[in-house]
Amino acid sequence: MSKPQDFDSKAYWSATLRLLFITLFIWFIVSFGAGILFRDVLDGIHLGGYPLGFWFAQQGSIYVFVALIFWYAWRMGKIDREHDVHED
Amino acid sequence: MDLKTLTYIVVGLSFALYIGVAIWARAGSTKEFYIAGGSVHPVVNGMATAADWMSAASFISMAGLIAFLGYGGSVYLMGWTGGYVLLAVLLAPYLRKFGKFTVPEFIGDRYYSNAARIVAVICLIFISFTYVAGQMRGVGIVFSRFLEVDITTGLLVGMGLVFFYAVLGGMKGITYTQVAQYCVLIFAYTIPAVFISLQLTGNPLPQLGLGSNIGDIGFLTKLDGVVTDLGFAKYTSGDKSMIDVFAITLALMAGTAGLPHVIVRFFTVPKVSDARISAGWALVFIALLYTTAPAVGAMARYNLHTTVNSALATGGDVFAPEASLEGESRPGWMKRWEATGLIAWEDKNGDGRIQYYNEKSKDEAFLAKADAAGWKGNELGSKAKDGSFDGKVDRDIMVLANPEIAGLPDWVIALIAAGGIAAALSTAAGLLLVISSSISHDLLKGIFAKNISEKGELLAGRIAAAVAVVVAGYLGYNPPGFVAEVVAFAFGLACASLFPTIVMGIFNKKMNKEGAIAGMLTGLLFTMAYIVYFKGIFIEPMAKNEAANWLFGISPEGIGVVGALLNVSVAYIVGKFTAPCPDHIQHLVEDIRYPRGAGTAQAH
Question: Does the record's keyword annotation contain Signal (chain A) (predicted)?
Answer without folding.
Answer: no
